[in-house]
Amino acid sequence: MKNILMLISTLLVTSCANNNIEAEFIEIKNKIARFDVVNNSNKDISKITLEIRFLDSSDNLLLVDTLDYQMGNDYRNEKLPFLKANDKTFIVQSAPDNCLKADIKILEIENIK
């Protein structure tokens, strides 16, 4: 049983990392879920697409939400980075009723060229 739990934990951690980019659930407080996003690469991220799965105390799925985060363009019409190389940020999302935890997965990353 311990081996199965360790395998599941490893898969969850691995599924939240993509190209040296990590996304991690931190907490839910006052129905607001907080997630950290860390860019351990040497490339700026212009856009990131994330999937968040909100769960109740029995790990039943309450809601799946797919989100895109990106910045606009500067005055020269060049893309601004959502997250610079070797930097970190956090995002928040409203959690549904009875939600006690969440999983986050990186679906897609676009780097600034």
Q: What characteristics describe this protein?
A:
1 helix, 12% helix, Immunoglobulin-like, mainly beta, 7 strands, four-stranded antiparallel beta sheet, Lipoprotein, three-stranded antiparallel beta sheet, 113 residues, single chain
Overall description:
The chain has 113 residues and is mostly beta strands. The chain has one domain: Immunoglobulin-like (Sandwich), CATH 2.60.40. 12% of the residues lie in helices and 52% in strands. Strands 1-2-3-6 form a four-stranded antiparallel sheet. The chain is elongated and about 50 Å long.
> Major sheet: order of its strands?
1-2-3-6
Q: CATH topology, anyone?
A: Immunoglobulin-like
Global outline: elongated
Element order: H for helix, E for strand:
HEEEEEEE
**Main β sheet profile:** 4 strands, antiparallel
Helix/strand structural class:
mainly beta
Our count of domains comes out at 1
* The CATH top-level class label: Mainly Beta
Instruction: Calculate the mean pLDDT score and round it.
Output: 87
Please mark out the parts with pLDDT under 50 across 5 or more consecutive residues, or reply none.
5-16
The name of the CATH architecture is: Sandwich
In terms of DSSP E residues, the strand content is over 45%
